[in-house]
């Protein structure tokens, strides 16, 4: 039995870019039925479409792709089916004008993707820098509060509260909080 490689190679001839748009699909030979589709991604050599009904691999179709204000017509072949409603289509024929329009669209999508990647990286770096700043600010505030309130770590027991207002500092290493009883002061609101 032959072993499969741990990581499958990307067999695509060109990079794909996430893209929204509409498609009209006419299976060949044409029966006159034109099906709508939604574009998921686009490359120089094909696209991935969400479709209302499944196609078989190898089916040829005429596709009108519309992204923003641009549209082009291509003939393609279904190369992959993912689930009941997603088809990967390879473009087998495009007119010269269609090729130019697709190339311009891919160039713009690549530029937008590069900008998005740069913004995401800057955001991650900013988030890490912001977190470090907040952590350091918290440390400074804790140090200031420690100086301002030197009795931090002090336990006030019920016995001491009744006898005097002096605080007992828990600096002896003993856990006085286990011995401490809750302080209850009764207040007569109607008397």
Describe this structure in words.
The chain contains two helices and eight strands. It has helices spanning 96-148, 158-163, and strands at 17-28, 35-43, 46-50, 60-67, 70-82, 86-94, 154-155, 168-169. The chain has a domain at 17-105: Beta Barrel (Thrombin, subunit H). Residues 1-9 and 160-178 have low confidence and may be disordered. The protein is of the alpha+beta class.
Write the layout of secondary structure elements.
Layout: E1 17-28, E2 35-43, E3 46-50, E4 60-67, E5 70-82, E6 86-94, H1 96-148, E7 154-155, H2 158-163, E8 168-169
Antiparallel strand pairs: 1-2, 1-4, 2-3, 3-6, 4-5, 5-6, 7-8
Could you write a compact summary of the structure shown?
This protein has 191 residues and is α+β, with helices and mostly antiparallel strands.
Q: What best-fitting shape do the alpha-carbon axes yield? A: elongated
What is the correct CATH architecture of the domain at 17-105? Answer: Beta Barrel
In which range does the helix fraction lie?
25-40%
Helix segment count?
A: 2
> Which stretches are low in confidence, meaning pLDDT under 50 for 5 or more residues running?
1-9, 160-178
Strand order of the largest sheet: 1-2-3-6-5-4
Largest sheet, in brief, is:
6 strands, antiparallel, barrel
Structural class: alpha+beta
- For the secondary structure, the number of strands is 8
Give me the CATH superfamily of the domain at 17-105.
predicted glycosyltransferase like domains
Please describe the structure with a list of short key phrases separated by commas or semicolons:
single chain; 191 residues; alpha+beta; Thrombin, subunit H; 6-stranded antiparallel β-barrel; two-stranded antiparallel ribbon; 2 helices; 8 strands
């Amino acid at each position: 039995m032959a072993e499969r490689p741990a990581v499958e190679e990307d067999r695509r001839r060109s990079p794909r870019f996430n893209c929204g748009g509409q498609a009209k699909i006419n299976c060949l030979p044409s029966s006159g039925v034109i099906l709508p589709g939604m574009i998921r991604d686009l490359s120089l050599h094909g696209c991935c479409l969400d479709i209302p009904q499944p196609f078989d691999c190898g089916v040829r179709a005429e596709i009108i792709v519309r992204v923003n204000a641009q549209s082009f017509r291509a003939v393609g072949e279904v190369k992959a089916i993912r689930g009941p409603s997603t088809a990967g289509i390879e473009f087998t024929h495009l007119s010269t004008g269609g090729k130019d329009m697709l190339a311009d669209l891919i160039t713009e999508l690549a530029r937008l993707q590069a900008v998005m990647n740069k913004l995401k990286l800057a955001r991650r770096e900013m988030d890490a820098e912001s977190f470090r700043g907040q952590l350091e600010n918290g440390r400074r505030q804790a140090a200031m509060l420690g100086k301002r309130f030197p009795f931090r770590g002090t336990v006030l027991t019920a016995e001491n509260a009744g006898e005097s207002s002096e605080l007992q500092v828990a600096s002896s290493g003993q856990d006085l909080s286990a011995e401490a009883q809750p302080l209850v002061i009764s207040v007569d609101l109607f008397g």
